[in-house]
Amino acid sequence: MFAVDPEYAEDDIELHLAFDGAIVEESDADVDVQERAQSPYELVADAQSVSAAISHLKSIVTPTALQHLEALLDHIAQLEDANAALQRQKTTQDAEMRSLRQLYHGSVQENEALALQLEQATTKKSSPPAPVAHSSLQELMEMDMKVHQMTKDKDKLAAENERVTALCAKFQQEVMWKTLDLSDNERSLQRLEWALAAEKTKSQDKEQEVADMRSKALALEEHNATLLKHKKVLVTEVKALQKYSHVNITALVQDAAEARMMQKSLADKLAEAQAERDALKESLNALSISSLDAPACCLSSDAALPS
After folding, report:
1. Lowest-pLDDT choice from 91-95, 149-153, 182-186
2. Do both 60 and 87 map to the same domain?
3. Are residues 220 and 263 in the same domain?
C-alpha cells in the first residue's frame, strides 16, 4: 500500500458512472437467467437477491477504493517523472564522460609530445659537439649558454611531465568514480522501470475490475427492471382475482365440512360392519362347536347297544 499525501487524502472524490451508449454482450448464463425470469412466480423471489447484489456492488465501489486507485495513478506518474529525470541525468553523464575522454586523450597526446621533446633535448645534450675547426672563445661561451638553457628547459619539461602525469591519474580516478555512479544509476533506473511496470499492471487490473463491475451493474439493473415489470403484472393479476377470493374460501370451507361429515358417516358404517362381522364370526364358531359335539354323542350310544 502506497502512502498518500495528506492534502490529497482530504479531498472528496466522487465516482460518476455513465452507461450511455454501452453495449451488453449476453452470455449463455444471461440467457438462462432471462429464460428463468419469464416465470413471474420465480422472479418475485429473485427480486430481493438482485437488490442485495446491487447493494453489495455499491458497497464494493467505495470512495476509499477510488482514492486508492487515484493514489496508484499519482504514484505511477511520479515514477514516470523520476524515470525521465534519470534518463536526463544519464544523458548528462554520458556527455561528461565524452568530454572527459577527449580531455584524457588530449592530455595523453600532450604528455607524449613533452616526453618526445625531453628525449630530443637529452639526445642533443649528450651528443658530442661537431668538430669545428678554428673554434674561438665566443663560440665556447655560446655553447655554454645553450647548454645552460637546455638544462632549464629540461627542468621545465620534467615539471610539466609530472603535472600531466598527476592530471592523468586524477582523471582516471574521476573516470572510475563516474563509472561507478553510472552503474548505480543504471541499477536504480532498472529497479524504477520494474516498479513502474508492476504499477501499470496493477492499474490495468483495477481498470478491468471496474469495467467488469460496471457491466455487472448494468446487467443487474436490466434484470431488476424485468422483475419490476413482472411484479406489476402479478400485482395486476392478484388485484383482479382478489374479488373472487372470499367466494372460493367459503366454498372450500363448505366442501371441507361435507368431507368431514362423509368421513364420519363412513367411519360409523365401518364400525357397524365390523360389529356384524364379529357377531357372524362368533355364531360360526358356536355352530362349529355344536356340530363337533353331536357326532360324539352318536358314537357313545352305538357302543352301549350290544351289551
Report:
1. 149-153
2. yes
3. no
Burial 255-267 (b: 16+ CB within 10 A, else e): eeeeeeeeeeeee
pTM over 0.85: no
pLDDT over 90, % of the chain: 6
Give the pLDDT confidence of 7-54 residue by residue, as tens digits: 444 445 444 444 455 454 545 544 454 444 444 445 545 656 666 666
Domain that holds residue 92: 6-109+183-242
How many CB atoms lie under 10 A from the CB of residue 88?
10
- 222, part of any domain: yes
Cell of 72: 496508484
- The mean predicted confidence, pLDDT, of the chain is 71
Domains contained in the chain, number: 2
- Which own/partner pairs from 213-219 qualify as long-range (CB within 8 Å, at least 24 positions apart)? 213/57, 213/60, 213/61, 214/17, 214/19, 214/22, 215/22, 215/24, 216/57, 217/17, 217/19, 217/54, 217/57, 218/19, 218/22, 218/24, 219/24, 219/30
| 162, 67 Cβ separation under 8 angstroms | no
Residue 173 located in a structural domain = no
Q: What are the backbone dihedrals phi and psi of residue 27, each rounded to the nearest 5 degrees, phi first? A: -100, 180
Residue 13 shares a structural domain with residue 96: yes
Task: Establish if 196 belongs to a structural domain.
Answer: yes
Q: Taking the CB of residue 295, how many other CB atoms lie within 10 A of it?
A: 8
The answer to whether position 125 is within a domain reads no
- Residues 56, 73: one domain? yes
Q: End-to-end CA distance of the chain, in Å?
A: 131
Are both 278 and 263 inside the same structural domain?
Answer: yes
